[in-house]
Design brief:
It contains three helices and three strands; from the N terminus they run αβαββα. The chain is of the alpha/beta class. The chain has a three-stranded parallel sheet, sandwiched between helices. Strand 1, helix 2 and strand 2 form a beta-alpha-beta unit. The longest helix has 15 residues. It starts with 14 loop residues before the first helix and ends with a helix.
Length: 102
């Protein structure tokens, strides 16, 4: 979806593989998901920021996280279901503040 909107997209797969790839490629936006009630996505975001301190992180989730629960790990949260317009509304300011497209 993001590729069709003009963003460069790299699908990184699982978190361990993603962190390995992040050692050699500069990313401006990380889009991650939380599939369960764990804090794995937050830990992943923190580890990614150790590699790329200016990285913006968007959490996409269908889970019932409250805004304050993981707020220090993510720059924005988008709850499922959402449409393309909502996705762009969330991503546009993140991409602007990072200095390049996602």
């Amino acid at each position: 979806m993001l590729g069709a909107l003009g963003y460069s997209v790299v699908v990184l797969g699982d978190q361990a593989r993603a962190l390995g790839i992040m050692h050699g490629i500069r990313f401006s936006l990380l889009v991650t998901t939380a599939r369960d009630g764990t804090s794995a996505a937050a830990q992943f975001a923190r580890e990614a920021r150790l590699l790329l301190p200016d990285l913006k992180v968007l959490l996409i989730t269908g889970a019932g996280y409250t805004a304050g629960l993981l707020s220090n790990a993510f720059d924005a949260t988008l709850y499922k279901p959402f449409n393309v317009s909502q996705l762009l509304q969330v991503i546009a300011p993140l991409a602007r503040t990072s200095g390049s497209s996602a």
